[in-house]
Amino acid sequence: MKYLFSLGIMSLLLLSASTSSAQSDKSKRPSPPATVTQKVGDATIVIDYSQPSVKGRTIGNGSEGTIIFNKTWKQWGAFKYSQADDQLRVTGKAEKAKTFAEKMTFSISPAGKVSLWWGDNEVSFKVK
Fold this sequence. Notes:
By secondary structure, the protein is α+β, with helices and mostly antiparallel strands. Helices cover 17% and strands 47% of the residues. The chain has one domain (28-126).
């Protein structure tokens, strides 16, 4: 009887461990996390962000795009966003991207050009 009880407790612990590890797999989220890192001169630029998908929406309707770097970095979604916490706003020329990007994607060149691709749009700016 003790053996069956111990076996039951062990099974329950294994099940809860596997369930909690499955919930922490952020790659399965609708907007999975991504990171891009590039050394530019003596500085290392790191952008940690989430990758929302286009999902049939219209992304961008203009000739400029504004990229906002907010100092409250552990927030999710637009519902907790506060413009008062903006650390930096960069406006760049919006261009038609060469290829369609379903998920929002950042890249950084060794020369310091930061580009954001999302849908048919590309917005870039230079870091000096």
